[in-house]
Amino acid sequence: MFPPKAKWSANQIPDLTGKVAFITGGTGGIGKETAKILLSKNAKVYIAGRGVSGGEQAVKELAQSTGNTPIFVKLDLADLKAVKAAAEEYKSKESKLDILFNNGGVMFPPVDKLTVDGYDLQFGTNVVGHFYLTKLLLPELLAGAQSSPDGHARVVNTSSMGHQLLYPNLSFETFKDSPERRKLGDKKLYGQSKFGNVVFSNELARRYGDQGIISISLHPGNIKTDLARHSSPAERALTGWMLYPVQLGVLTQLYAGTAPEALKLNGKYLIPWARVGKAHKGTDDPAVATKLWQWLETETSNL
Asked: Domains in the chain and their CATH numbers?
């Protein structure tokens, strides 16, 4: 919560000419700031978000501030058909992908909120949506690894320290609506989704590391964004003094996605600011990871 001064900065990012990046949640907050820095380093950047007007505005602002224009892709992670459409749109324009930032997500929405497909909104958006997007873009990621001089492509998965504090577990009966799910409440459901992000990231590293995919999960820090829009005024007042600016919030995922030394961090968990940390030990249980992966594969196999 109170990290030491950063030793790594965005100024250390090498020139990214020829690299292609895709950022979920790329039209605001940490995602938009990530896009800004990648564009300034000459990467080709796709920013994905739910709202077309917000996306168009983000494209305009980023083009003005960097001199390079990102490409907007409409993406609703809470609707698997929309995820598929977004992936197909990307595939129609690109044959490779070098960096996938699984950055978008929701935190503490009302418990009665579900995704279009009937999943808990937090687990469905934060885990299922990102799993399906990554699955669909794997051919492009593998092509990115093959074409890269360093032989790698990267998947950067945004989690949270909430995966340790709120609910360090996976209760499969709560992934869809159930009495057990409602008993957990919004905070534990959020923690579970962030736990799932780390489990997925680690399993992706195990399954595809030998094919050049570097998968890293991270806690970006307590950052001033609109992610906490569902929190109560009292909660925001209580935690507001602990929040850091978005310019710091981007450091850890930019390090994971661009730093040459991060190629050695496959399957690792990072903490602010661009440091290797320790996730909850349960996230690295291969049996849990296999069970989650198989469940996710089953849920997305016939779409």
From this structure: 10-299 (3.40.50.720)
